[in-house]
Design a protein that fits this description.
It contains seven helices and 44 strands. With 815 residues, the protein is mainly β. The strands form nine sheets. The protein has a 22-stranded antiparallel beta barrel. Strand 24 and strand 25 form a beta hairpin. The two termini are 53 Å apart.
């Protein structure tokens, strides 16, 4: 491998190249040993205070320079505003140990940095200046967050979702939303889709009261694929991860194929599991709620040895209740043990396991247009109506996975990471599926019995090089990932259903006799994908340039046992991304980016029709992020132009079709963080202008795609009382606006808009008595006013009711 060209202006540059070349050699060896991470010998750890880091801190105010330094070093810096008022800094470029870098940054200021433990540095006057300044309150200008760990409050300042490296969001030229653990807890979400209700560009309620699958529309396109700990999870199944087991939920807005391969152009969900920590944080929760909900959960975490080289964490959950639909139960048993081995600062291995059994996994059915999207000739149909039949209904899901996250640093230049997961899932779903209304009150249904078994192996190998070429600081990432999915499925139906299984929507009678079912699907599909990617994050002063490219090869083979034939598809595609951002010292970061996506289509067309082409997408995004220096709040606005080609849609017919091309232009605004020490906020506004620009269906071109609200808005605030007559009390309130959307591809009717209210009330019982320290209670309400509304419609008689009012109460104990 040839070495990169470096400036020849100094001998030091040529000397600096030698360890970089050695690092490349180490990296190639690590990649060859990727199947056996345990073979890499641990190196001696270096103390964080003397380990070198690369810095690019621009000249400017001393307070802003300290904030930038803390952000890049991943440490916390505590300083009184009086000490930095009116002072300037010459900035800092190059690689330095943390302590030495701080002292160089403070040269000529009359200040010094003193370590106080736990990665915190306190800024104080030099000894000869002691007593010259009377100190006021001390503020923290850097909190030492990382891209995977816990976050206090609603603002995560760093993320790896958009770059696969630990990068400040304020320096990432792409829109990314991070929902923290605190926000998940305050809003008491029970599935990942609910977690995204207050995020920009996201339509999380399109399935309404059905919780069986997390289906999220982003920037007008569905469904956003789900990744867990950097690896795809499911993808061809109804895999669902309970949010109790997550540290954070992140949403990448726009195409993300350059790092993740096959992905929807609207966006990608990136989930992060709770992981072991040296600091013991244990928690137990008991809860009850609407629809006979009973829930118990625990989270245990800590050290297994005094040195802290072995850490553990075990999360568990038991939940049982009823669905909003009559006769339907929902039950879940899940556990997630994990173990981390970190023999030194440079090496870590985390084993992650997950088991989830849903003996009652919830319903998934359609609703008629008349009586749901409108009042209908006989009034609204009850949103609790069981459209199926309790004697025929069955919904089961069992999923298990095991994998690991491995990381090893070869000095300061090279880091090797490898993530692997094996997933297995079994599903069984029986239901009388609603098809159409034969008159203004009679629903025609078809019996369907489907089973599926899936196995999936996913592997991602990464090499990260951190080096400098003259004044340019590089974070170069290269990787190879691989995915194999094997899915076996059957689906049986009674195709002579017309007139055999009617249901009066206003006077239902159950217990119908089910006739013989015929095979509709009996197939095995094997899909393989391998991708090679390269990304370079380049910093030059306040400039941040992001360049990335990826080549994917995807192959799928379907054995159709009914037709006695085999179909094979081979696709390959190059995807790329480029972004440029300038981070002003004032906290403003304008950026522009361009990215593309690639997604093979696995759906089957109508018999006799040619196979679907791969779906592709491209996006241009211009945005502005703003984080006032020294604050815990971030504001962003993004304007985007997104086009998806070879779009596959369901329009009410039996088989899907490729619509052709959809273009969506829009704007997103998002705000999150702590406005004061007591007040936290998260809010978003989205305006979309979607249009079908190419199609083979007459009368559809120029129309808006269905179930795409033109406007979405949300605001949630939480206020925590720490004094006065209400210490320990916390109160939260939220409002969500879902704009109107078209309910069919011809734009013949609309689904009305809806305004929904949410609320939370919590109390720290430790404020009542010292013996109750760690105990708390919390009440939550979703759709507080119990508004009746249609969440969305995809076509005639393909609608979904919105969720009704949900109340929950929980008792928590943490120690």
């Amino acid at each position: 491998m040839s070495s990169p060209d470096l400036p020849r202006s100094s001998d030091s540059s040529r000397v600096a190249l030698r360890p970089c070349v050695a690092a490349v050699r180490h990296g190639l060896l690590a990649m060859l040993l990727s199947a056996a991470p345990f073979a890499i010998a641990p190196l001696q750890a270096a103390d964080s205070a003397v380990a070198s880091h690369a810095y690019s801190v621009a000249p400017g105010s001393l307070g802003g320079a300290l904030a930038s330094f803390a952000e890049q070093a991943g440490v916390s810096v505590a300083v009184s505003p009086e000490l930095t008022a009116g002072k300037r800094s010459a900035g800092l470029q190059g690689q330095w140990p943390v302590a030495e870098g701080l002292q160089r940054l403070l040269q000529g200021s009359g200040l010094e940095a003193v370590p106080s433990g736990q990665g915190v540095y306190v800024i104080r006057p030099l000894p000869e200046a002691n007593g010259a300044v009377e100190l006021g309150s001390t503020s923290i200008v850097g909190r030492g967050q990382n891209a995977y760990g816990p976050v206090d409050g609603y603002l995560a300042e760093r993320s790896a979702a958009g770059t696969k490296t630990d990068t400040p969001l304020i320096r990432t030229p792409q829109s990314i939303s991070v929902i923290t653990r605190d926000q998940l807890d305050d809003q008491a979400v029970t599935n990942v889709a609910q977690a995204l209700r207050y995020s920009g560009g996201t339509f999380a309620d399109y399935r309404g009261s059905s919780h069986r699958v997390d289906e999220v529309y982003v920037r007008g396109f569905g469904y956003a694929p789900t990744y867990l700990d950097g690896l795809t999870v499911g993808g061809e199944s109804y895999t669902q991860v309970d949010p109790w087991f997550l540290e954070r939920v992140e949403l990448i807005h726009g195409p993300a194929s350059v790092l993740y391969g096959q992905a929807n152009p609207g966006g990608l969900l990136a989930l992060t599991s709770k992981r072991p920590s040296a600091e013991a944080k244990n928690r137990v929760q008991l809860g009850v709620g609407s629809d006979s909900l009973r829930r118990g959960a625990f989270d245990l975490n800590g050290k297994l040895d005094e040195q802290g080289t072995l850490l553990y964490r075990v999360n568990g959950l038991l939940s049982k209740g009823q669905s909003e639909v009559d006769h339907i139960d929902e039950e879940r048993h899940a556990i997630a043990p994990s173990l981390t081995w970190q023999p030194n600062e440079d090496t870590s291995l985390t084993l992650l396991a997950y088991y989830q059994n849903d003996p009652d996994a919830g319903y998934r059915n359609f609703w008629p247009t008349d009586g749901v999207a409108n009042s209908g000739p006989h009034g609204r149909i009850s949103r609790h109506l069981d459209i199926g039949d309790p004697d025929f209904y069955r919904s089961e899901r069992e999923q298990s996975s095991i994998g690991y996250l491995f990381e090893h640093r070869f000095g300061d230049l090279l880091t090797f990471r490898q993530n692997l997961r094996y997933l297995k899932e079994n599903e069984h779903y029986k239901q009388l599926v609603f098809m159409f209304m034969s008159d203004d009150r009679t629903l025609e249904r078809i019996p369907a019995d489907s089973r599926a078994q899936m196995e999936q192996v996913v592997l991602d190998n990464q090499l990260q090089f951190d080096f400098a070429t003259g004044p340019l600081q590089h974070t170069l990432l290269t990787g190879v990932d691989y995915k194999r999915t094997h899915r076996d499925e059957t689906d049986d139906r009674d195709f002579g259903y017309r007139g055999k299984y009617p249901l009066d929507a206003y006077d239902p009678r159950y217990g119908v006799d089910i006739g013989d079912l015929s095979a509709n699907v009996d197939s095995t599909r094997r899909a393989d994908q391998i991708g090679v990617y390269l990304q370079d994050q380049i910093e030059f002063g306040n400039w941040n340039l992001l360049l990335g490219g990826r080549h994917d090869r995807a192959r799928s083979r379907t054995d159709d046992r009914l037709a006695g034939e085999r179909q094979s598809f081979n696709d390959e595609k190059f995807t790329g991304r480029a972004g440029l951002l300038y981070a002003f010292d004032s906290g403003f970061s304008p950026y522009i980016s361009y990215s593309t996506s690639f997604e093979p289509v696995l759906s089957s067309p109508e018999p006799g029709q040619p196979a679907f082409k791969p779906t592709t997408g491209e996006q241009t995004e211009v945005g502005l992020k703003y984080q006032p220096p020294g604050t815990e709040a971030m504001f962003s606005v993004a304007l985007f132009d997104l086009t998806q080609q070879n779009v596959v849609t369901y329009d009410g017919s039996w088989f899907p079709s490729q619509t052709g091309e959809i273009r969506t232009r829009g704007v997103e605004l998002e705000a999150r963080g702590n406005l004061t020490d007591n007040l936290e906020l998260v809010g978003a506004f989205t305006h979309l202008e979607p249009e079908v620009t190419k199609t083979t269906r007459p009368g559809v071109e120029g129309k808006e795609p269905p179930r795409t609200p033109a406007h979405l808005a949300s605001l949630w605030t939480t206020y925590r009382f720490d004094g006065g007559v209400l210490p320990g009390l916390s109160a939260g309130a939220g409002v969500r606006y879902i704009g109107s959307s078209y309910g069919d591809q011809y734009n013949e009717y609309k689904v009305d808009s809806a305004v929904l209210l949410d609320a939370m009330l919590g109390y720290d019982l430790g404020k009542l008595a010292a013996d109750l320290e760690g105990a708390s209670v919390q009440l939550n309400a979703s759709n507080l006013t119990d508004k009746v509304y249609a969440a969305s419609c995809a076509a005639m008689d393909t609608c979904f009711y919105g969720a009704s009012r949900t109340l929950t109460a929980s008792v928590n104990y943490a120690w």
